[in-house]
């Protein structure tokens, strides 16, 4: 009987050793899977960030393209333009009443740019010894 108990105890120890090895391997595999999952999540976040950056760049490029396709007019009096054209090409007829839709768009664009520049410009401190215009007496 002792011999049988000794064999049973030996077999139990072998099973426990096998289970410990198996459990150790499972933990190692779980650790690998967790690492792979974290790497995949990082890659996904990086890809999403890159796509967001590309979308922002796309929007900026198309906005700039639209701006460049808009005709801009220069601040020159019509009489000055007419005088130059007359000198170069002879007598011309000028229509002073026109719809000027593109000119009005140009003026609107200029006002928007100026407003954006004013909004983004940092406030300048008043020179030493002089009151700030915001606090100057009326």
Question: What keywords describe this structure?
Answer:
138 residues; mainly alpha; 3 helices
The helix count comes to 3
Q: State the oligomer.
A: single chain
Arithmetic mean pLDDT: 84
* Strand-pairing-aware structural class: mainly alpha
Main sheet?
A: none
Please tally the β strands and state the result: 0
Beta-strand residue fraction: under 5%
Helical content band? over 70%
Shape: rod-shaped
Cα distance spanning the termini: 114 Å
Q: Spans of 5+ residues with little confidence (pLDDT < 50)? A: none
Sequence-ordered SSE layout with sheet pairings:
Elements: H1 2-69, H2 78-89, H3 101-120
Could you walk me through the main structural features you see in this protein, from its secondary elements to its overall organization?
The protein is rod-shaped, with a radius of gyration of 40 Å. The chain has a domain at 72-117. Helix content is 72%, strand content 0%. It is built from three helices and no strands. The mean pLDDT is 84. It is mostly helical.
